[in-house]
Amino acid sequence: AENLYSTLWGLKVKHEDVPADVQELIANRHLAREARDWPLADTIREQISHRGYRIEDKATGVEIFKKESTS
Hints:
Largest sheet: 4 strands, mixed
Number of helices: 2
Order of helices and strands: EEHHEE
């Protein structure tokens, strides 16, 4: 089976060819969450969403999925 997870700045991330800018947002969001800066983490989640990705926090790591196109 293909490994769907990679380590990204110390995070275990399930991804589908996640672009570098979105990977950087994921890392920044992780730092905000570690600092318990929830408003910043939520803002970064919105930025990730605007780039067409959905992020889920799991016990095993962060999972990110490309959102389905609505068009």
